[in-house]
Amino acid sequence: MVHEQTGGRSGDDGRLGVRLHDTLGEAAVQEQRELACEQLGFARTGSPREVRHPGARDGLGLDAVGALVAVAAAGVVVVRAAQAESKMYLTQRGSRIAMRVAVLGTGMVGRALAGRLADLGHDVVMGTRDVAETLARTSPDGMGNPPLPTWLAGRPQVKLDSLAAAAAHGEIVVNATSGGHSIDALVAAGAQNLAGKVLIDIANPLDFSHGMPPTLFVKDTYSLGEQIQADFPDARVVKTLNTLNANLMVNPRELADGDHSVFVSGNDPAAKAIVIGLLRDFGHTDVIDLGDITTARGSEMYLPIWLRLMGALGSSAFNVKVVR
Ligand SMILES: NC(=O)c1ccc[n+]([C@@H]2O[C@H](COP(=O)([O-])OP(=O)(O)OC[C@H]3O[C@@H](n4cnc5c(N)ncnc54)[C@H](OP(=O)(O)O)[C@@H]3O)[C@@H](O)[C@H]2O)c1
Questions:
Q1: What are the C-alpha distances in Å from 221 to residues 47, 82, 295?
Q2: In whole numbers, what is the pLDDT of the chain averaged over residues?
Q3: pLDDT band at residue 71, thresholds of 50, 70 and 90?
Q4: Which residue of 177, 207, 299 sits with most ligand 1 atoms within 8 Å of its CB, as the best mutation to test the pocket?
Q5: Ligand 1: residues whose CB is within 6 Å?
Q6: Span from the CA of 207 to the centroid of ligand 1 (angstroms)
Q7: 144 exposed, middle or buried (CB, 10 Å; 0-12, 13-18, 19+)?
Q8: How confident is the model at residue 107 (pLDDT cuts 50, 70, 90)?
Q9: How many helices (H) and strands (E) does the chain have?
Q10: What is the pLDDT of residues 240-299, one digit of tens each?
Q11: Domains plus CATH for the chain?
């Protein structure tokens, strides 16, 4: 006979669920829990049934960790994957914990995300197409931003690697590449390096080929977010932050003390919960869950009015607040 031990995430997708044979008996299950805690780096707190991951604010019931440990011990997933899952679980519960993050993209958005995530204590690797070429850049980019080596010199904790190596490093992956090339960039990152991971998609489907302002190369009945989810079905895509300028994405309190709105879209509720936790860590106070990934059409189709607002206001330091 088999029973289900779910690690405390009842009502979700059961990702942490693990079947333990009753025949193991309580002593063996307890032994597995202890082993799992050791493998996953959890330490005992004062409470007999609670453990804490280093860096987490809150302790976690031993049963929850036990499920993860048993998953690892059963060889269903490798320990590293269980470690990633345990961190995501804790992050979802609102415990700020250091994660390995890949930021694919070296432009303003990639820099903003990589810098802020590193400041928050995460282990960040940025991904670029050609590391040697990117490190050889000496001129400002088209927007007048300093070349990446200059930026990296002031950010020694952020590493740079290929798209594939960065994605392999990340427990969470951020897509901050040019929208027209995001699929190419993610193919280069490797579907196997995105599988099972939260993929935060910030790209906008802007088409500059017809002049300024750009148009959208996908809209109305489809979106870039959906295209990415369809092309990488094993990734847990969450569209967010694409409606803000790069600085406000990660420093929302610099405008109206953060009293404005940001959106999330995605099919995986647990992935959205993790992303909402990160957004709160950035300082966002009003995160609106629009629904599944098809709702990315809405936030992407906001871009035409965003571009006109930027023209009218002469600045990109603005945002919408959804009053209700
Ligand atoms: N800028 C903003 O404030 C803002 C706000 C909201 C949303 N967004 C969206 O965020 C994304 C990033 O914007 P950004 O302004 O930081 O930079 P960007 O100039 O739109 O994109 C730069 C990145 O795209 C990559 N890239 C360019 N061509 C590529 C190709 N052919 N194949 C693979 N990768 C390619 C570059 O790779 P390399 O590193 O190899 O050069 C670089 O990392 C865009 O989709 C944009 O629409 C931007």
A1: 53, 37, 10
A2: 84
A3: very low
A4: 177
A5: 105-110, 128-129, 134, 176-179, 181, 184-185, 202-204, 206, 242, 245-246
A6: 12
A7: exposed
A8: very high
A9: 14, 15
A10: 999 999 999 999 999 999 999 999 999 999 899 889 989 999 999 999 999 999 999 999
A11: 2-92 (no CATH), 100-313 (3.40.50.720)
- The arrangement of strands across the sheet holding 60-61 comes to 43-44, 50-52, 60-61
| Structure tokens belonging to residue 65 | 């960790």
Q: Whose CA is nearest to atom 25 of ligand 1?
A: 177
Closest Cα to residue 250, out of 289, 283, 275? 283
Length of the chain, please?
A: 324
Q: Which of 128, 130, 178 to mutate to test the pocket of ligand 1 (most atoms within 8 A of CB)?
A: 178
pLDDT reported for residue 12: 33
Distance CA 299, CA 78 (A): 37
Q: What angle do CA 141, 299, 247 make, to 5 degrees?
A: 40
Of 111, 132, 86, the closest CA to residue 174 belongs to 111
| Distance in Å from the first CA to the final CA of the chain | 52
182-230 residue pLDDT tens: 999 999 999 999 999 999 999 999 999 999 999 999 999 999 999 999 9
Q: Is 111 exposed, middle or buried (0-12, 13-18, 19+ CB in 10 A)?
A: buried
The pTM for the full model equals 0.81
- Gap from CA of 20 to ligand 1 centroid (Å): 46
Where helices occur in 161-268 by DSSP H, the ranges are: 163-169, 182-189, 191-194, 224-231, 246-250
- Closest to 198 measured CA to CA, from 275, 265, 276: 275
Kind and range of the H or E element at 171? none
Q: What is the Cα Rg of the chain in Å?
A: 21
| The pLDDT of residue 167 | 98
Tokens in use for 230?
């369809």
